[in-house]
Amino acid sequence: MVSQFVSSHDVRLLGALDFDFPEGTHAVGRLDSLSEGLLILTTNKKVTNLLFLGEVPHKRTYWVNVGHVVPPETVELLRTGIPIRVKGGGYYVTTPCEVEIIDRPAILSKHKNETQPDVPNTWLSITLTEGKYHQVRKMVREANHRCRRLIRASIEDLELGDLPPGGVREIEEEEFFRLLKINNWKSAISSDDFVWEPSIENPAY
């Protein structure tokens, strides 16, 4: 589905989920239609600014399944910075991030791209603080690996956990901001207090 409640296109939207969302609910940190995982839905207009426009960048962890075996030198390349293509045809070198090879997360449901278990593949955990357009997919592609599956596992200490596909879990406000490591949420301004237009190559999600 698309990570929004309204669209001019004939697509499945968040309103199709089996949950009675309060008026004004919107997505923060949207996922593209081919990705899975943790998605924040809130009525609090401060959250986007606090997560993406604050002085302290917030970590986001992704589980990535790629084709073939990933050698140690490729892991190091992804960690230290790899050139990815950006708008206009140029290249941008990603900032250093955390990358490690992991076992397949046991909590994940099976996916259509995992119908051939004998085909060599690797699971990676990638934790970064920047969010260029399709950055993780571009990073593994430039490292000569095809992204078979991409799941956002956490934003700071707010974790996907055992939440099933399409599942919704409510969190108390103070606990929510504690897990996101945001301390100034009571005094912060909301998105209505200023005009901000995200770049397509560095969106706030």
The CATH first-level class comes to Alpha Beta
Given the structure, what is the number of helices? 4
- State the CATH topology: Pseudouridine synthase
What is the CA–CA distance across the termini?
Answer: 16 Å
Described by the principal axes of the CA atoms, the overall outline is globular
The low-confidence parts are 194-205
Overall CATH architecture: 2-Layer Sandwich
Which secondary-structure class do the elements indicate? Answer: alpha+beta
**Nearest-angstrom radius of gyration?**
18 Å
Order of helices and strands: EEEHEHEEEEHEEH
State the CATH superfamily name: Pseudouridine synthase
Total beta strand runs: 10
How many domains make up the coordinates?
1
- Describe the biggest sheet? 6 strands, mixed
Give your account of this protein's structure.
With 205 residues, the protein is α+β, with helices and mostly antiparallel strands. It has a single domain (14-193), classed as 2-Layer Sandwich (Pseudouridine synthase). It has 4 helices and 10 strands, in the order βββαβαββββαββα. It has helices at 47-52, 72-80, 135-142, 173-179, and strands at 26-28, 36-37, 40-42, 60-67, 83-85, 91-93, 98-102, 121-128, 147-155, 158-159. Strands 2, 4, 7, 8, 9 and 10 form a 6-stranded mixed β-sheet that branches. A hairpin with a 5-residue loop joins strand 5 and strand 6 (91-93). The longest helix has 9 residues, at 72-80. It is globular and about 45 Å long. The two termini are 16 Å apart. 20% of the residues are buried. The model is unreliable at 194-205 (pLDDT under 50).
